[in-house]
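User: Okay, second chain of the day. Same drill as before: sequence in, structure tokens out.
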Amino acid sequence: MEVLIWLGAGISLLGLAGLVWCILRVWKARRSGLEDAALREQVRRVLPINTGALMLSVLGLMLVVVGIMLG
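Assistant: Same drill. Structure tokens below.
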């Protein structure tokens, strides 16, 4: 079950990297001084990636927990 734990940790790290990317992208858009409509468009584009990265992190953590419980 050690493989399951490491696989889950890797998947969680990928999700975490996606979340950091989303944060940096929106932060950059806010600092660029865009108008309200343009800023909303940037956030709208990032939202599905943010949700997917969060789901990936959760699935990875679930794999880690399952691996610990079975191991």
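The CA atoms of residues 5 and 64 lie 4 Å apart.

User: Thanks, on to the next one.
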